[in-house]
Write a structure and sequence with these properties.
Layout: E1 2-5, E2 11-12, H1 13-18, H2 26-34, E3 38-40, E4 43-44, E5 51-52, E6 57-60, H3 69-80, E7 84-88, E8 92-97, H4 108-113, H5 117-125, E9 133-134, E10 143-149, H6 152-163, E11 168-176, E12 183-193, E13 198-201, E14 210-221, E15 225-232, H7 239-246, E16 274-282, E17 289-293, H8 298-305
Parallel strand pairs: 10-16
Antiparallel strand pairs: 1-6, 2-5, 3-4, 3-6, 7-8, 8-10, 9-10, 11-15, 11-16, 12-13, 12-14, 14-15, 16-17
Helix pairs in contact: 3-5
């Protein structure tokens, strides 16, 4: 067993371990981490890129029970599907989902197809005798960070956080048209129509109506569209998509939430230009505040790369 103490900030776990004789290379360190033989503050961490906080203790124990061939195969299937493992320990799993994939199935037809992020995550976790419990969702054609718990009890604790609006959920979005204000807040009453699987504008006091709140700021203006950072206060289904339309600036690539006779402007996109970029929450076991980011996908950065920003 080998014990290290982190005395420098913002260093990756594999960097720390690769400097010591028992793991003489970065590759050896990464393999040990991925096989579950390294713990940070007594919690097994399986992501080589995890940034170790100052003062944390790192324990490498080659005798610790590792992962099986089946789990390595599960990791390969995630990678083949375009899913990135952002963080994993004994209790939670944070994934970066590509657009076009359901977070979880919602209908019998979807369940039979078995094509969801939860399905892939469950296959990956099965060798650990764990299941993937969804803590929150993002839309099929929205990319970015999704959090899973490995037990039902922990998923309930995480959901309590989301219901209390304590996690930080930040999205990168492209909206049609130019927004001249620097920042603001969207507040709208809306209600989910289960039959149509559609979020609808509503009014205070109406059945199933809930207030949706999001704070936004302009990142960049272009001649016909605007890049925004949108921070959710509430977390309703399709919230940003509907709110952007209600203020007259539908998302670039939006097809479902559009006003009648809408004339699209801005770049063309095969999906709505919305990405769950940052997620912060309290660890359900240790209580430590965790924060993760997912890079904006290439198909979205390509929409703005060739277009000059407006002065």
């Amino acid at each position: 067993m080998h014990i290290l103490l982190a005395d420098q900030p913002d260093r990756r776990l594999d960097q720390w371990l690769s400097e010591h004789p028992e793991l003489p290379s970065r590759r050896k360190a990464q393999e040990a981490i991925e096989r579950g033989k390294v713990a940070v503050n007594d919690v097994v961490v399986r992501e080589p890129g995890y940034k170790v906080p100052v003062g944390a203790s790192m324990v490498y124990d080659p005798r610790r029970k590792g992962t099986s061939v089946a789990q390595h195969r599960g990791r390969e299937l995630l990678v083949q599907a375009g899913v990135k493992i952002v963080f994993e320990d004994d209790h939670i799993l944070v994934l970066d989902k590509p657009a076009g994939m359901l977070t979880d199935t919602a209908t019998h037809q979807q369940a039979r197809a078995g094509n969801s992020l939860r399905h892939l995550a469950t296959d990956y976790l099965r060798p650990q005798d764990k299941l993937a419990w969804v803590a929150h969702r993002i839309d099929r054609d929205t990319s970015g960070l999704v959090l899973f718990a490995k037990t039902e009890e922990l998923s309930l604790k995480l959901r309590e956080q989301f219901e209390a609006h304590t996690p930080e959920r930040v999205y990168w979005a492209l909206v049609q048209g130019v927004i001249e204000e620097k920042s603001g807040t969207w507040e709208h009453w809306m209600a989910w129509n289960a039959g149509r699987r559609h979020q609808l504008p509503s009014e205070a006091g109406k059945r199933h109506a809930a207030l949706a709140v999001a704070h936004w700021r302009v990142l960049e203006r272009y001649p016909t569209f605007t890049a925004l950072e949108v921070k959710l206060h509430t977390g309703k289904r399709n919230q940003i998509r509907l709110q952007a339309q209600l203020v007259g600036h539908p998302l670039v690539g939006e097809t479902q939430y559009l006003p009648e006779e809408h004339k699209p402007c801005g770049p063309r996109s095969k999906r709505q230009a919305l990405h769950a970029q940052r997620l912060a929450f309290d660890h359900p076991v240790t209580g430590a505040r965790l924060s993760f980011e997912a890079p904006i996908p290439a198909e979205l950065t390509a929409l703005v790369r060739a277009r000059p920003a407006r002065p």
